[in-house]
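Give me structure tokens for this 73-residue protein.
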Amino acid sequence: MSCVSSILVFKDNLPYDDFIAIPISSKVNKLHSDEVLICDDDFLDGKLPVTSKLIIRKTFVVSKKSIIKNMVY
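Here you go.
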């Protein structure tokens, strides 16, 4: 069984069939220099269930075909 993780879509990588994504974690008790706090006030649309952090050092490329759910609160 594979793990399902939350990500922030940073950039749609047109014309390719993938996008650049940044992992999100709700474990904000310790921040590294390459992690950024985000909360509901940072979004124009949608919301986060809790204040979280972006883990910039783990930025990666994801195929659009691998997305199983698109959630916006």
